[in-house]
Amino acid sequence: MIPCLEPLFPGEWRTHGAGVALAPSGSTAPTVAAWLECPATLAAACRAHARHLDPPVTDPQAPLAALASVWSLTYFWRLLPPVVAAASVLQRVLPVGTTQARLALAEDGAPLPFLLPHDGHAMPGAPSAERYATLLHGHIAPVAARLAECCGVAPRIVWGNAARYLEVIFSQLARMLPTHAGLRADHAWLLARPDWDGLENPMYRPARAVTRGSAQGDTTHTLLRRCCLYYQLPGHGYCDLCPLAPCNRAARRVAGPCADVDTAAC
């Protein structure tokens, strides 16, 4: 973990701060940009990742778009927590552009910590657009475009996967720092507006909720912005909060958990 991030990732949360590290001198790991240039390597990573799911997906006919989408969830869960904590809490921009960050993969196709050339630069008081430009336009955008080109997954799905975890990260940081106004402002700018200063926001989608009844009473759940295609993998089903799950599409009120969802996939 980069030292400046350590206070923001205590206890069980600590492992999530280790998604980035300083590159050792002479690192030979390729940059993310260079790694993305090889379609065969990208597809192989997605298939290796699928073989380590529970249950494993080994069918060679499994749709590559779904494999790539699910792989991107693991990718973003490694990348996003430290980058968001740095940008929103420390007001520090980490050098995570695809031409700067270096990438190596574990045996299961998941990314090892992204290796950065330095620990970033402070941007106190800079607007959200400036502090998040490198992450959004210099990393997520080219990854989404390349996954679309090589694997056939729609860019909006990849962006939706990033949004899914941004919600989780901002929620966790808000619990740790409930009076931090900057967190609320960045969250709203990233996820709650349809455009970024005139550019379409590919992560934006109006929230939709469903209410479920049980013996303990009604509970309301906010659905995910987009489906991650998990249900297309052999042996797997819909995520509990998937907007495409039949029980979530059919009604705004359902009785208990969906019978046709895979809660472990969420």
TrEMBL record:
Single annotated GO MF: catalytic activity
Ranges for domain Aerobactin siderophore biosynthesis IucA/IucC-like C-terminal: 70-208
InterPro entries per record: Fe_iron_reduct, FhuF_C, IucA/IucC-like_C
Lineage: superkingdom: Bacteria
Residue ranges occupied by any Ferric siderophore reductase C-terminal domain in the UniProt entry: 225-244
Any single Pfam family the record assigns to this protein: FhuF
NCBIfam families in alphabetical order: Fe_III_red_FhuF
Protein name per Swiss-Prot or TrEMBL: Siderophore-iron reductase FhuF
Gene name for this UniProt entry: fhuF
